[in-house]
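The freezer alarm interrupted the setup, so I double-checked each line after restarting. Inputs confirmed:
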Amino acid sequence: MTGIEDVAALAGVSKATVSRALSGRGYVSAETRSRVEAAASSLGYVVSSSASSLVTGRTNNVGVIIPMINQWFFASILEGVERALLDRGYDLMLYNVTKTEAERTKVFEYFLVRKRVDAVIAVTLEITPEETSQLLALGKPIAGIGGPLEGIPTLSIDDVEAARLATEHLILLGHREIMHVGGDVHEQMDFHVHSKRLRGFLEALQSAGLPADEHSYVATRFDIPGGYTVGKQILGDPRRRPTAIFAAADEVAIGVIIAARELGISVPDDLSVIGIDNHPLGAMFGLTSLEQRPDLQGEQAVEWVIRQLEQPGWAPPPVHSVVPARLVIRSSTARPRPRAS
Amino acid sequence: MTGIEDVAALAGVSKATVSRALSGRGYVSAETRSRVEAAASSLGYVVSSSASSLVTGRTNNVGVIIPMINQWFFASILEGVERALLDRGYDLMLYNVTKTEAERTKVFEYFLVRKRVDAVIAVTLEITPEETSQLLALGKPIAGIGGPLEGIPTLSIDDVEAARLATEHLILLGHREIMHVGGDVHEQMDFHVHSKRLRGFLEALQSAGLPADEHSYVATRFDIPGGYTVGKQILGDPRRRPTAIFAAADEVAIGVIIAARELGISVPDDLSVIGIDNHPLGAMFGLTSLEQRPDLQGEQAVEWVIRQLEQPGWAPPPVHSVVPARLVIRSSTARPRPRAS
DNA sequence: CTGAAAGCGCTAACAT
DNA sequence: ATGTTAGCGCTTTCAG
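Predicted 3D structure, all chains:
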């Protein structure tokens, strides 16, 4: 394996100069630099990251802890993080920590045990206070996405606001019988997403002077089958059927629409459905949705940690800060035509 | 940061002994070992991976190159790979290489440039011969999943056989008008999956003495919307409608079923649909499916590369070897009742 | 079974 | 602007 010494010899300079020329740190004359670069590439030289990490203390790796990969939201975040990281010249170490205790400890051990990452990005991680302090004890930049992590700067959209916007959109279209299909407020891994979206919904109704009771809201699993099941129930009885539904997530909304279509209910003609996320499948179902860009959140988190790495002293926005996603009503997709009023 | 020297001092032994005790390599008396371990954990000592990599030449990292994350098949592989790697004590470096040229070269540069992985797993990577040789030139264990990579041991299911099994299942149930909805044979990133599944389908028909013409097969995009679009076309005309459909992937099958239900066609009563993959959403649509376990392929690939790492001399099965997935007909879900004979 | 010592390949002062 | 030199923290002969 060709090392820095070979390059130095070929270029007729010292190892130090090669290091400076290739890393861009320190003064090197343009002429020398190009000679070194030529030598390096002709030899196919590449720095040994272990050697350079050993002396600099920097690994150029960022660890990502994520609870699942096989769901649109999480996969999107991961894609965004990966893209941003690669772009900035960092590598991504993936830790898919599931709920099982054994795996959790293993991951935390690895992180704490191996000093191989410069920073950590934690995605909707549900962790105990002690796990948090273990993370913090690393003394490395950390950013969270999607769930407030006590003591850790976290990114997420403004759920209350998003829900309110969605609901107001329906109200503006003339709907008065609007129902909310959301997640179970008592669910694990909630991070108050469900309760916040419910709150935004209720606030919007209230502002518009519309009544809200326990029939205005129903909880289900946060995926397509969840929405489907509930959709069949809600829409089965024509007398109780709302004219519009605000689903807390596109996946739920899609389930509802599938159910509706099977029942011969046309969306959006007979029933308006709006969701949050802008899930790619939405287009197929004529779904109106507020755009949440998990990939952008991922990119943002990367910015946060890298900025801390590269300009010491800089600190991300305070704990639990909430960065609103771009909320876009794709009105072209939504043409609700309420029967009521 | 506490180093090996501190541990040695506290345990009253030399650095060398600490190293042996903690790494498990070399002779250390049981008594000494436990003293060292106690010292290490009381100090919260962890080895510096850069230092140890520098001297051993091993990083304990495996690189994974994958073209996309946000799709069931790919995410499943990634989950399987991650699980297996974590289990064996390796870390996973993720490289999501999309089609854009810039990103590709960047990834390949990183791999070639940084010597930070011990092995590489390439998922359905469509690479040029020179990229292949770049990979091979790394001189590190490599395994591919899903697409035959010239010169690289690759895992995939037996597509022809899977398609044949699925089709035979329908034939056995009495169907004679069976249609295949598959991917476009001329598609990029094909790896012959589409043509192989088509071939298996045709062979099954032929063996059963059933006719097959150009109307027996239709190509579409390999996802839910793709299946939906085609479903509407195929099933719209009651006279041409087949009694059964073999979809080349569950996602396509699900699209077809959604279309069928909207048309008032009951699955599986009026129409049998079978797919390949055992996609989790299948259950919601009463879909019969052959089980493909991408996560298991991921785990297998990990075994291959790690085995090469840990027992030099061992070699994985020859190039392009095909490992059949577990093919499970979930007959409980499928109750086709053909109108024809 | 344990210790001493020689690096692994590079970077960062410090000189020049 | 470039060269010299002293390690970074660990593993691994080689002695004992």
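Quick read of the result. Chain B touches chain A through 47 residues (CB under 8 Å).
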